[in-house]
Amino acid sequence: MIPKEVANLAVDTSVTPAIRGTLIGSSLQAMRERDLNDAYFATLDPEFHEAIRTFTPQSWVEMPLAQAHYQTMDKLVPDDEEIVAIGRAVGDRVQKSYIATLIRGLRATGAVDPVRIMSRAPSISQRIFRGGGLKVRQTGPKDVVVEFLAVPLCSVRYFRWGFAGVIQGGLQLVTRQVYVNPRQTSDKSMLLKVSWV
Fold this sequence. Notes:
Helix content is 49%, strand content 23%. The protein has one domain: H-NOX domain (Alpha-Beta Complex). The chain has a five-stranded antiparallel sheet with strand order 1-5-6-8-7. It has a three-stranded antiparallel sheet with strand order 3-2-4. By secondary structure, the chain is of the alpha+beta class. The protein contains eight helices and eight strands; from the N terminus they run ββαααβααααβββαββ. The model has no long low-confidence stretch (mean pLDDT 91). Helix 1 crosses helix 5 and helix 5 runs parallel beside helix 8.
């Protein structure tokens, strides 16, 4: 199959990159559920302690704080499979109602499948990232490639695998099994190969 573009969101260079606080808040909740709170603050640069304790989930979190958080989590959770599980839980908390609404709308049109959901990736991305872009290409009947661009967090392994879990959890609402393999392509980009059965 010749790759076919499914979705495209241009990088917005007019804004300072940021991530929605709900992602970090949900990640912090996962950290607390694993009894890592003391280890988290022992590892996190003290410069960011107050900001982590006082940020609001509805806010946009600037990259220095977001990177400090994800780099800390990267040190505390070395297992990729556990990070994917955390990502699925974060996705459930952050996007489940939005994705469920999206799926209901697609079902009303008569067709809902992972490719149709991924065609809505720009609107999902704009809810959680500010400034970054993405491209989604269908590479096979049950395969897509998602490329994130100008997202500084792509350099952090914990973020890459966690976001693989977010995608996996969202697509498992419409298919049995989803496989997501993330790969860093630059200090601000990543490619996720997504397939399903």
